[in-house]
């Protein structure tokens, strides 16, 4: 009896709700909902008139029905493109400076790696009560990331936000996030439920950026395939000012439709800085051991080693690209059974100029106390991260 009564109530309610326009629920207004939060409401009061004037100056229609966001990691830029109709070409509204950087080129593949993702995403969260003023969440990990990243800990909680701090997000200033948040809120209110956000390693038309990417690809050739896919979408948008259809294949790779290719005449000029290689020494890698009873010790101990790295980090700051505030550099090297540092190699995070200084400093390290295995000195390969940050 209870089941019949419940079914009757459901049917009755549905019929009642559609009985007439005068009884229909009011249409949900996303802007008004966001205004119920003080931070957004105050931002809208301060910024809406200014944004409207900026749109008018650029002969754009306010508010934009569609927005597209793309960010360039190495160049520390975030572009905002807008349009009114689905088939209209996008027009550039504004470019913001990304004011802090974590990690280096390459995709995010696990929690805690400090990497900003690379790939094709959309905004899936509006947070007007963020600890970082305001924030727009991205759908990382997307399907591709879930297939290619750490299966247990791919990471998450990637946002575009204010406050100028980051451990893998895209931070801009509070003033800028207010503008972007308002633009995104207006677009969503008009029906753009999936606001695209594309994150690229570099701005592919910038010579300096292209050279940095080419250098990185030499050290990490496995990344080149993904970088080429990202570059294809960049140039498709450059040509059409609209986005291609982006799909994901069974291996997690990105797949596109027709006419998504890189123009043959794209050959940006780059100023090359010769990369220094470690001094060649005779060494039989068969001597390397994977297990030890005692790790090698830097002359003076762990505190002395940290001081040596800190001094190196300070000297590397002046070599950071002008638009980059910090980086994590990974170095691989061997401590021989005699305690000598040989064959240092920068794995990621450094320009060629930085690479040269790192190689020089590692080769000049004072003698270590070698690793010990079964009471005998042995050779071992180590990795070290160097954190470089401008004041």
Strand tally is 15
Query: Which strand order do you get reading across the main beta sheet?
Result: 3-2-1-8-4-5-6-7
* Helix content range: 25-40%
Unreliable stretches: 1-22
Assign an overall shape: elongated
**How many alpha or pi helices?**
9
Number of domains: 2
Structural class based on helices, strands and sheet pairing:
alpha+beta
Q: What's the main sheet like?
A: 8 strands, mixed
- Overall average pLDDT: 86
CATH H-level homologous superfamily name of the largest domain: L,D-transpeptidase catalytic domain-like
Percent of residues in beta strands: 15-25%
What is the name of the CATH topology of the largest domain? L,D-transpeptidase catalytic domain-like
Order of helices and strands: HHHEEEEEHEEHEHHEEHEEHEEE
The first-level CATH class name of the largest domain: Mainly Beta
Annotated CATH architecture of the largest domain: Beta Barrel
| Gyration radius from CA atoms, angstroms | 26 Å
For the termini, the CA-CA separation is 73 Å
Name the quaternary structure: single chain
Summarize the helices and strands and which ones pair or pack.
Elements: H1 2-17, H2 30-35, H3 38-57, E1 66-72, E2 77-83, E3 91-97, E4 119-127, E5 135-138, H4 143-148, E6 159-161, E7 170-171, H5 174-189, E8 196-200, H6 207-219, H7 224-240, E9 246-248, E10 254-256, H8 302-317, E11 326-335, E12 341-348, H9 352-363, E13 371-373, E14 376-378, E15 380-389
Parallel strand pairs: 1-8, 6-7
Antiparallel strand pairs: 1-2, 2-3, 4-5, 4-8, 5-6, 9-10, 11-12, 11-15, 13-14
Helix pairs in contact: 3-5
């Amino acid at each position: 009896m209870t089941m019949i009564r419940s079914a009757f109530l459901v049917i009755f309610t549905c019929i009642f709700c559609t009985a007439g326009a005068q009884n229909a629920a009011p249409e949900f207004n996303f802007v008004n909902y966001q205004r119920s939060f003080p931070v957004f409401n105050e931002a809208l009061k301060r910024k809406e008139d200014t944004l409207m004037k900026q749109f008018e100056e650029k002969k754009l229609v306010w508010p934009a029905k569609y927005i597209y966001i793309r960010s360039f990691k190495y160049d520390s830029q975030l572009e905002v493109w807008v349009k009114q109709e689905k088939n209209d070409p996008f027009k550039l509204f504004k470019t913001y400076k990304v004011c802090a950087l974590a990690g280096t080129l390459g995709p995010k593949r696990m929690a805690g790696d400090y990497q900003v993702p690379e790939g094709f995403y959309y905004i899936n969260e509006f947070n007007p009560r963020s600890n970082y003023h305001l924030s727009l969440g991205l759908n990382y990990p997307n399907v591709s990331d879930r297939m290619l990243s750490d299966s247990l800990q791919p990471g998450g909680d990637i946002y575009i936000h204010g406050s100028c701090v980051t451990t893998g997000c895209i931070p801009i200033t509070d003033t800028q996030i207010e503008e972007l948040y308002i633009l995104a809120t207006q677009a969503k209110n008009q029906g753009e439920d999936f606001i695209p956000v594309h994150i690229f390693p570099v701005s592919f038309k910038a010579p300096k950026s292209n050279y940095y990417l080419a250098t990185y690809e030499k050290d990490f050739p496995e990344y080149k395939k993904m970088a080429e896919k990202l570059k294809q979408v960049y140039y498709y948008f450059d040509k059409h000012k609209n986005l291609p259809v982006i799909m994901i294949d069974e291996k997690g790779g990105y797949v596109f439709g027709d006419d998504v290719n890189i123009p043959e005449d794209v050959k940006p000029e780059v100023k090359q800085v010769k990369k220094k290689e470690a001094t060649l020494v005779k060494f039989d890698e068969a001597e390397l051991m994977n297990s030890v009873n005692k790790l090698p010790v830097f002359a003076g101990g762990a505190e002395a080693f940290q001081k040596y790295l800190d001094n190196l980090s300070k000297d590397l700051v002046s070599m950071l690209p002008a638009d980059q505030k910090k980086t994590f550099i990974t170095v691989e090297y061997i401590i021989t059974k005699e305690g000598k540092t040989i064959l240092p190699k920068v794995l990621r995070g450094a320009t060629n100029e930085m690479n040269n200084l790192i190689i020089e400093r590692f080769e000049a390290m004072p003698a270590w106390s070698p690793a010990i295995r079964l009471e005998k000195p042995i050779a071992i390969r180590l990795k070290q991260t160097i954190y470089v940050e401008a004041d």
